[in-house]
Amino acid sequence: MPPIEKLLQHDLTHLGERIVLALVIVALTFGGARLVTRLFERLRQRLPQASASVYITEKLISYALIVAGCLVGLSVSGIDITSLAVFAGATGVGVGLGLQGVVKEFVSGLVIMFDPNLAVGDFVEIDKNLRGEIMEIGPRATRVRTNDGLSIIIPNSDFVENQVINWTYNSGTRRIHIPFSVVPGADKATIRDIVLKAANALPFTSPDTEEHRTQVWLTDFDDDAFRFELVVWPTASAVRHPSSLKAAYYWAIDDALRSKGMEAPNPQNDLNIRSLFGLTGSEALATLGLKAVKPRHSRRVAVSPNDAAHDLATELPPEAPRQRPQS
């Protein structure tokens, strides 16, 4: 065999070995990244309080391993990495335009991971029909699991560009409003005591403190109904189940009111006859065979505690006196 053919065969053999070695390095890199991810997942389960920082560290190490492994693989295969700068400069604009959506989602994912307002494990609300727990923040999308067990894949940019409600920010609770109605004329103090007792009997109602108190507000009334709201602070764990939470309070309120003989109002229409065959007043009643009823004296009702007014009076600072502008 001529020397030139031997040299070419040797070079091809050597090139094949380098390519195989490069592929092995890249495969080991991805395997190592997966192993690191599994180790950090176990660490997050053991340290739930530091899960956000552990998750960020996990992602950064995984991304760094993959990038470093790919660069080492290219170098081992014989490709000069510095020569890729010219190629990247020539084609970067075209590739960037084609992959700008992917780059946008990747950068948004990094922003979410370093954002202290959002973290894995938070219960968030994207819109009224989409609530769930953040399970994973990926390079393109974030996976949210609802209370119905559905995993929803949401682009990372939606969390950066749109409004997101974090129900469990700093592992705290939030106040919820439970509206209900009773027949008009019911004693407000009695309604308040019944509903407060029913709400406090539920195990997921937080005990009253100076800042967080369970209250009953009268929000509206007319000829058809008295409209109230139960204002309650549930426990932090119960906040993650808003639909079940409200259903439980509705049920408890209805049971408590029914046990005292108070039911929800039923709208009704009253027919007022101003005249009957040209007769009015006692003459019209006599024609129908009815007797006039003497009006009852209004019963005095004790003033019941007004929680909303009390809060406004104690929490709002007094207004500072207005100063006249200096001339």
Care to describe what's here?
This protein has helices at 3-46, 51-76, 84-98, 100-114, 156-161, 188-200, 242-259, 281-288, 307-315, and strands spanning 123-127, 130-137, 141-145, 151-155, 165-166, 176-182, 215-221, 226-232. The protein has 327 residues and is α+β, with helices and mostly antiparallel strands. The strands form two sheets. Strands 4-3-2-1-5 form a five-stranded antiparallel sheet. Strands 6-8-7 form a three-stranded antiparallel sheet, covered by helices on one side. A hairpin with a 2-residue loop joins strand 1 (123-127) and strand 2 (130-137). Helix 1 (3-46) packs antiparallel against helix 2 and helix 6 crosses helix 7 (242-259). 13% of the residues are buried.
The structural class is: alpha+beta
Low-confidence stretches: 297-301, 319-327
| Number of H/I helices | 9
- CATH class descriptor of the largest domain: Mainly Alpha
Helix fraction by DSSP (H/I, runs of at least 4): 40-55%
Any idea of the CATH topology of the largest domain? Helix Hairpins
Shape: elongated
Binned strand content: 5-15%
Distance between the termini: 106 Å
Strands of the widest sheet, in order across it, are 4-3-2-1-5
Q: What is the oligomeric state here?
A: single chain
Q: Please give the largest β-sheet.
A: 5 strands, antiparallel
The chain-level mean pLDDT equals 76
Number of domains: 3
Spatial extent as radius of gyration: 35 Å
CATH architecture of the largest domain: Orthogonal Bundle
State the total count of DSSP E strands: 8
Secondary-structure element sequence? HHHHEEEEHEEHEEHHH
